[in-house]
Amino acid sequence: MFNYTLVSKPSFVFDENILKSIFENISKKIKKNQSWNINIVFLDSQEVRDLNKNYRWIDKTTDVLSFHYHENFKNFEKYDTVWEVVLNEEKIFSQALDYWITPEKEFFNLVIHSVLHILGYDHETNEDYKEMYSIESELWFEIFWEEKV
Description:
Blueprint: E1 3-6, H1 16-29, E2 37-43, H2 45-56, E3 64-68, E4 81-88, H3 89-99, H4 103-118, H5 126-147
Parallel strand pairs: 1-2, 2-4
Antiparallel strand pairs: 3-4
Helix pairs in contact: 1-4, 1-5, 3-4, 4-5
């Protein structure tokens, strides 16, 4: 199971037990090495736009970016930090309004999505999108049915 470090905290409140549950459920569902640490960082729209432009050559903001620090993951100790999830706090609030959910739930949704990207899932093709969305939906149901959030 991935460990995580909150490098910065959002302005909204979230239940850290649910965040832990997300990582536990992903670990049970996806049988890939998940022994490292992920930094979770909250930035504003301009900072995320700058990262997106510099690293993905897309000059617009986005809701979440996932980065890895290394090309080879063979020589790391358990819980070494090798990933980073950068979340756009402004987008979390605006998308929560669009989807009629709380910022907390949108944050959890983006964590699930970004961790699946870290584990190699993508949505570039229709087939890939269906597979990733199916896993996201299953995780969402399992986590929130149990938690009754």
